[in-house]
Amino acid sequence: MILTTLSSSSKGNMHVLSNGVTSILLDCGIKFNRVFEYLYPAKLDGVILTHEHGDHIGGCQSLAQNRIIPFYGTKETLDKVNIPGFDKYAIEPLKTFSIVSYNIVAFEVHHDAAHPVNYLIKDNLSGAQLLYITDTGNLDDIEIHDVDYILIECNFDEEWYQKEELSRSEKIKKKRLLGDKGHLSIQKTIEFLKRTINHNTKKIILCHISHSFDGYKEFEKKVQQELNFEKVVALNPQFIGPVVNELEEEKEVMPFE
Ligand SMILES: [Zn+2]
Ligand SMILES: [Zn+2]
């Protein structure tokens, strides 16, 4: 599989996951005219949406106007996208669905949206699995193991909000971010990864880093050190354009299920 990130931050989230047969978008937060040159030759088989916030669905309308493409998400998310005539499939948490050669299962997360979910995606050609986690205040109830690749939010550092003098806007931001329906801090991301990764884990990609933070490489280093695991890559939140992560496969080829 190849994971191509077109944008990853609170300004817009959009990744293309391709295994050579099937290509899907993970969220669609950037308008088509800003990314079409990277999408253009590729056939897209579907879009999976986590929730209805603009940085995840902001590109749906322009994409639907330019491509015939099915959108997948919970009913509540799709209702909020509400593009006339667009091709939509409501999915239910914990019920596996397929998009050509991927088997996908959604699971509920904690975020201030109508019915947010994250996804576990299995590539039936290689057997490899990618876990996509973003926009959740905590992962306390999520236990998933034996995943090959983890694309996970690492939004902010709790230490940023521990200083005594916070401005009014910082206080409002702190309340949301540190609440149970906010975003994952690097501390929570590390805590989850520590209990999740094992000998099957091949790569961790840190996404949705706060766009106001240009020290994303610091997050990469901190996670590497805390996990004692080298293959950690942080996505630059300031960048729009293709960042390619090759997800090499080492497992036996599995038949379609
Ligand atoms: Zn977001
Ligand atoms: Zn959100």
Write the SSE topology.
Blueprint: E1 2-9, E2 12-18, E3 23-26, H1 32-39, E4 46-48, H2 54-57, H3 60-66, E5 71-73, H4 75-81, E6 88-90, E7 97-99, E8 102-108, E9 117-123, E10 129-133, E11 149-153, H5 168-178, H6 186-196, E12 203-207, H7 216-227, E13 232-234, E14 240-246
Parallel strand pairs: 3-4, 4-5, 5-6, 10-11, 11-12, 12-13
Antiparallel strand pairs: 1-2, 1-14, 2-3, 7-8, 8-9, 9-10
The structure holds zinc ion (ZN) (2 copies).
Distance between the termini: 18 Å
Give the beta-strand count: 14
Query: The CATH topology, please?
Result: Metallo-beta-lactamase, Chain A
Count of alpha and pi helical runs: 7
Strand proportion: 25-35%
What profile does the largest beta sheet have?
7 strands, mixed
| Name of the CATH architecture | 4-Layer Sandwich
Number of domains as seen in the coordinates: 1
How does the overall form come out from the CA principal axes?
Answer: globular
The oligomeric status of these chains comes to single chain
CATH homology superfamily: Ribonuclease Z/Hydroxyacylglutathione hydrolase-like
In terms of structural class, how would the helical and strand content be classed? alpha/beta
* Run of helices and strands: EEEHEHHEHEEEEEEHHEHEE
Strand order of the largest sheet: 6-5-4-3-2-1-14
> pLDDT below 50 for ≥5 consecutive residues: which ranges?
251-257
Mean pLDDT: 91
Provide the CATH top-level class: Alpha Beta
Bound molecules: zinc ion
